[in-house]
């Protein structure tokens, strides 16, 4: 089965097989990893291994902390104003789609003076702003943007220039899909459930000088500094997700790291876009330079065929292709764990469907 879900998403088969094999007896403990104390030496070592693997794979410099937190990406875009902006302080946002909008709304709820300095709603969120076309207020506490919009399938082809203002990025749907220049960012965060494991875990990479700016009344559980000092274990962390993250990071290393991952992901996306563009029957609405490598929405020329397309796809083992309700049509999410063969199978199915049904 090739699973094109936007998340929780397909995971690497070797990782699932390893997790299955050691589920009932983890490291000779006679127990599963689900049942051991997060404060026991075995799990502490497991979490430390995941952290150091993340640092190696993503090339995270030593002046950044890596936090493993519960509450997903939503927890984190909610935590950002509390951690970085006093009530009434200015915070800048780029609005490129549904996930940017949710982060913006949350900042507004927390009494931040939100400045949306670029807004792509006029294109129905099929574009990213031109580099240099927006100005970030110099007194902004941070600039927040979403490098990859999971629903619209829109991705920034560049890292925005925020000057001295800390750049904060929601990497949820593009996390570790290619090399990343961490030093350009103040904070990187994202949920694990697309490229990095099961739901429930958010991975936050935060520059050390940004710790300690939290509001006084922020609950300790949302305070990055408190969590950094507690090695992300102020309370019980999502242990199984952290364990699986470690396995996935080792899988990424064993398959050539992020350079090789980026090349594979780029090639997969290019093939699928080429197939869509070569056809008059399928259409992707996104501006060419802003097309996502990870989430590829497409429509059929006749929406009356959508249900048949989906049923036929399921029948040949291609599942979860239904588009988000706000966009319609189809969406193929092709994260790290989607093999090239899965994309080939999808293209073959699309070609055959067009030939016989269009
Ligand atoms: N940001 C982006 C870009 C996402 O794709 C998602 C989830 N689809 C979220 C945030 C929210 O993540 P979570 O469900 O982990 O809170």
TrEMBL record:
Keyword Cytoplasm in record: yes
Gene3D superfamilies noted in UniProt: Aspartate Aminotransferase, domain 1, Type I PLP-dependent aspartate aminotransferase-like (Major domain)
PROSITE patterns for the chain: AA_TRANSFER_CLASS_5
GO molecular function annotations of the record: O-phospho-L-serine:2-oxoglutarate aminotransferase activity; pyridoxal phosphate binding
Record localization: Cytoplasm
UniProt remark on cofactor binding: Binds 1 pyridoxal phosphate per subunit.
Cofactor dependence: pyridoxal 5'-phosphate
Residues modified as N6-(pyridoxal phosphate)lysine: 194
Pathways per UniProt: Cofactor biosynthesis; pyridoxine 5'-phosphate biosynthesis; pyridoxine 5'-phosphate from D-erythrose 4-phosphate: step 3/5; Amino-acid biosynthesis; L-serine biosynthesis; L-serine from 3-phospho-D-glycerate: step 2/3
Catalytic activity: O-phospho-L-serine + 2-oxoglutarate = 3-phosphooxypyruvate + L-glutamate; 4-(phosphooxy)-L-threonine + 2-oxoglutarate = (R)-3-hydroxy-2-oxo-4-phosphooxybutanoate + L-glutamate
EC number(s) recorded for this UniProt protein: 2.6.1.52
Residues at which pyridoxal 5'-phosphate binds: 73-74, 99, 150, 170, 193, 235-236
Aminotransferase class V domain ranges (all copies): 1-346
Family affiliation: Belongs to the class-V pyridoxal-phosphate-dependent aminotransferase family. SerC subfamily.
Subunit organization: Homodimer.
Official protein name in the record: Phosphoserine aminotransferase
Organism: Actinomyces glycerinitolerans
GN (gene name): serC
């Amino acid at each position: 089965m090739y699973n094109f879900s936007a998340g929780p998403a397909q995971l690497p088969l070797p990782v699932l097989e390893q997790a299955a094999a050691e589920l009932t007896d983890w490291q000779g403990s006679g127990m599963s990893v689900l049942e051991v104390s997060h404060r026991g030496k075995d799990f502490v070592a497991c979490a430390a291994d995941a952290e150091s693997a993340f640092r190696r794979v993503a090339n995270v410099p030593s002046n950044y902390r890596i936090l493993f937190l519960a509450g997903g990406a939503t927890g984190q875009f909610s935590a950002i104003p509390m951690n970085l902006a006093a009530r009434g302080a200015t915070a800048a946002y780029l609005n490129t789609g549904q996930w940017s909008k949710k982060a913006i709304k949350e900042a507004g709820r927390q009494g931040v003076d939100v400045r949306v300095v670029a807004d792509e709603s006029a294109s129905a969120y099929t574009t990213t702003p031109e580099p240099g076309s927006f100005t970030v207020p110099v007194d902004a506490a941070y600039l927040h943007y979403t490098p990859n919009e999971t629903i619209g399938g829109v991705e920034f082809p560049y890292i925005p220039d925020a000057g001295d203002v800390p750049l904060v990025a929601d990497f949820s749907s593009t996390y570790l899909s290619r090399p990343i220049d961490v030093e350009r960012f103040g904070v990187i965060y994202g949920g694990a459930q697309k490229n990095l494991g099961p739901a429930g875990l958010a991975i936050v990479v935060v520059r050390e000088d940004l710790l300690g700016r939290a509001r006084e009344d922020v609950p300790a559980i949302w305070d990055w500094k408190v969590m950094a000092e507690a090695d992300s274990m102020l309370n019980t962390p999502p242990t199984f997700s952290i364990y699986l993250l470690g396995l996935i990071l080792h899988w990424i290393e064993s398959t050539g790291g992020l350079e090789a991952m980026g090349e594979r992901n780029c090639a997969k996306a290019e093939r699928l876009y080429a197939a869509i563009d070569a056809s008059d029957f399928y259409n992707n609405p996104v501006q060419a330079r802003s097309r996502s490598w990870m989430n590829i929405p497409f429509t059929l020329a006749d929406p009356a065929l959508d249900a048949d397309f989906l049923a036929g796809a399921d029948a040949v083992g291609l599942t979860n292709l239904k588009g988000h309700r706000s966009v319609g049509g189809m969406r193929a999410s092709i994260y790290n764990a989607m093999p090239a063969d899965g994309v080939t199978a999808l293209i073959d199915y699309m070609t055959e469907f067009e030939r016989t049904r269009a």
